[in-house]
Structure formats: structure tokens, C-alpha cells
Amino acid sequence: MLCLLFLGPFFATATMRLLINNACIQSFQVLQLQQTFDSSLEKPQFPGASAEFVDQLEFIQPNVISGIPVYRVMDRQGNIINPSQDPQLSKETVLNFYQKMTMLNTMDRILYESQRQGRISFYMTNYGEEGTHIGSAAALDPNDLVFGQYREAGVLMYRGFPLDHFMAQCYANADDLGKGRQMPVHYGSKDLNFVTISSPLATQIPQAAGAAYAVKRENTNRAVICYFGEGAASEGDAHAGFNFSATLECPLIFFCRNNGYAISTPTNEQYRGDGIAARGPGYGMLSIRVDGNDVFAVYNATKEARRRAVAENQPFLIEAMTYRIGHHSTSDDSSAYRSVDEVNYWDKQDHPISRLRHYMTARGWWSEDDERSWRKQSRKTVMEAFERAERRLKPNPELLFTDVYQEMIPSLNKQRESLWRHVQQYKENYPLDLYEK
């Protein structure tokens, strides 16, 4: 039969050839059915996932492993656990770490009390999270772009932001780079590549993804880092930012400060999964969980993430486990949702500043005399900046209407004229002598 097919019209009419072809096709089908087929060898061809077929009904458990481990370098007494992980930083560098962390702590205490006395309207402290700031900032290149949330003052301080600028921003005086148009602790510095902080949670995450994509297209040796808390990771913006950065392959470090509480909401009410680092693999990101109270662990993780993000054009997710010792802000009373004993434990037993101090003391780099002298000096430095900020005039009210359009548009000019008519009519309520002319 097969031979007749190839012999063609010499041995068969057209009708005969058609019948022979049909019979042949049926024969092939029978042969195929007779062949044994092992369905276990079938592989999924769906374009949306890399997987295998299974024949048992089983749902994936939330915690498929015992928990993502926490990377650390030092124990709570400042001892290096694994010598191969010691970053081998110089004495000068480590002292700089310590001085920046304690200076930040001193500034926090003074500005917090300033708000309590009615001198400024609002403040947020960084108590207990200083290690995440300094460790990560030290691992970055000065040219890297920073998107902060509102508790990254130490990153700016490490980059060289002067105390006078911190104070000017919180006091909204004439020296404020933002010209008094932002609420306190919403810092920003174009010169230091630190994008001005916004109040709404998580808006910086997709913005950072877009900036990192632009950096990638420029093909420069530059990365972007984006800070946020575990509460902000519950916002939709976080998921959009994660997905865009992974699919667009952006040189971006997502740095989550998991400090235990999103304002008054503990982590067990924020999520049911294994923290924030567990979300990385779902978006195709390399992830790590580090001890945020270990400045060396934070430094090592951020440095390696930064190196690979730039070299490989891919995002990284760092979850720094730490604890917010202070209230969320001056508008919060944390005693309403956590115990004093809990706070005291983290303040006295597992604090990033005391851990680094143990490390320095063990090496003979720091003493009690050094501590007393530095604390006195740092407080004096902060107080001098504080006093200068208080004496400085407020920005000229005209600045309310600038930096929006290149030229004053009619509607904005109308608002400006309305303001000044109001101020003149009720000038006893507007002490213009406190403002720059």
C-alpha cells in the first residue's frame, strides 16, 4: 500500500489513490493508538510559570520552609561570629559609624523635646534603627540615588547633610532647602542624591523602580535604593514597584526596615506570611533577611546587593529586622499597644549602638572617657545648631507661589493678591516681622 502511494498514476486511478491514502492514514492512527505513552513524561508548556505536572490534589502551604534565616555578623555582645564575614573596616570607619549613630540619637532627643515644648509641630525619632541607616548608607556610592520614607535621617547624615539643614527643615526657617513648604522630617537634598520625602506611604517604591529603569538606560555605574517599612509593604504601590523592577531588570535595592509595628499595627496583624523577604522570590527577586541591629551585617548585605544590582541589572530585596524603640511619631503613644518591658528589652539588651560599642571597646578603640567626651561634644554641637535654627527668620511668604510655574499665571497671581489683602486686613494675627522680607 505504501509503495503504491509513491508509484502514482502508473498503477492507480485518482479514485484508487484517494482510497489508498485514506486507508493509510487510518493505519497510522491505529499504530499510534497501539503505542504505549507515559503521561508522567509530559511537561507543562504554559508560558506563565516554570513547573511540573502532578496527579495529587495538594495546596501549597504558606510556610514551605521553617523560616528565612537572619544573617548576622556580630552577636549581641559585639563579638564576630564568623571571621570570614568580618568586613575588616578600619578603626576610622568604625568610629565614624558610631559617631554618626550616636549623633543621630542625640539630634532625635533634642528635636523630640523641642516638639513636646511646642517649638516645632511634628517629629519622628529613629531610636533603635540607627544600624539600618548607617550600615546601608556606608555601603552605597555617593552617586547612588536614595528614595527614603521618613525614618532614614541617618542615611542623609552619613552622606554629609549638615545639622543646620536638619534643624532648618524641622523649623521651616529661611535656610530650609524646601523653603518651609514641607512638614518636619521630610528632608531632601539634590546635591546628596536624596529624593525629598513624601508623606503618603509607599509612593516612593514605584518611583524608585522608574528611576532605576532610567539609570539602567543611561548605562552608568549607578544604583537606586528605596527604603520603606513593613507596613508600607502592605500598600499596593509596593507590589507594583516590585513587579516593575523585576520585569524591567532594574539596578534597585529595596530596603525594608521591619521594626515590628506599622504605627500601632503589629506584624502579626500586617501579614500572615514569613515577613517581607519571602515576597521576593514570588516577584523573581533575590532576597535576604539581615539583623538590622548589626551594622556590619547591614553593611555586608547592602554592599553585595549594590554590587550585583549594578553588574547584573536586577533588583534585590533586603529585609532588615529591627525594633522601633520610640513612638511612631510625636502624634503616637506606643504605650497603648505594647508593654514597657518589651521596649526596655530592645533598648537595653539588643540596641545597635551598644552592640557596636562593645565591638570597639573589645579592640581598645573606645573607652569610658571617650564616651563621656563624645557625648558631651555631640550634644553641644547639636544644641548650637538648634539655637541657630530657632533664631533664624521664617521664609518670605512670597515663596508660597514660586517654583510651580516658570512665570506667574493669572490664577496663581489672583491667589497671591487675595492672601496679601487678607494679611493686611488681619495683620495683628500675622507677625510678619518673623519672616524674611
Automatic annotation (TrEMBL):
One of its GO terms (biological process) is branched-chain amino acid catabolic process. Together with BCKDHB forms the heterotetrameric E1 subunit of the mitochondrial branched-chain alpha-ketoacid dehydrogenase (BCKD) complex. The BCKD complex catalyzes the multi-step oxidative decarboxylation of alpha-ketoacids derived from the branched-chain amino-acids valine, leucine and isoleucine producing CO2 and acyl-CoA which is subsequently utilized to produce energy. The E1 subunit catalyzes the first step with the decarboxylation of the alpha-ketoacid forming an enzyme-product intermediate. The branched-chain alpha-keto dehydrogenase complex catalyzes the overall conversion of alpha-keto acids to acyl-CoA and CO(2). It contains multiple copies of three enzymatic components: branched-chain alpha-keto acid decarboxylase (E1), lipoamide acyltransferase (E2) and lipoamide dehydrogenase (E3). It comes from Astatotilapia calliptera. InterPro entries: Alpha-ketoacid_DH_E1_comp, DH_E1, THDP-binding. Heterotetramer of 2 alpha/BCKDHA and 2 beta chains/BCKDHB that forms the branched-chain alpha-keto acid decarboxylase (E1) component of the BCKD complex. The branched-chain alpha-ketoacid dehydrogenase is a large complex composed of three major building blocks E1, E2 and E3. It is organized around E2, a 24-meric cubic core composed of DBT, to which are associated 6 to 12 copies of E1, and approximately 6 copies of the dehydrogenase E3, a DLD dimer. Interacts with PPM1K. Residues 1-17 form the signal peptide. Residues 99-398 form the Dehydrogenase E1 component domain. GO terms for molecular function: branched-chain 2-oxo acid dehydrogenase activity; metal ion binding. The lineage of its organism: Eukaryota, Metazoa, Chordata, Craniata, Vertebrata. SUPFAM superfamilies: Thiamin diphosphate-binding fold (THDP-binding) (SSF52518). Its EC number is 1.2.4.4. Keywords: Metal-binding, Mitochondrion, Oxidoreductase, Potassium, Signal, Thiamine pyrophosphate, Transit peptide. Transmembrane segments: none annotated. This is 2-oxoisovalerate dehydrogenase subunit alpha. It is an enzyme of class 1 (oxidoreductase).
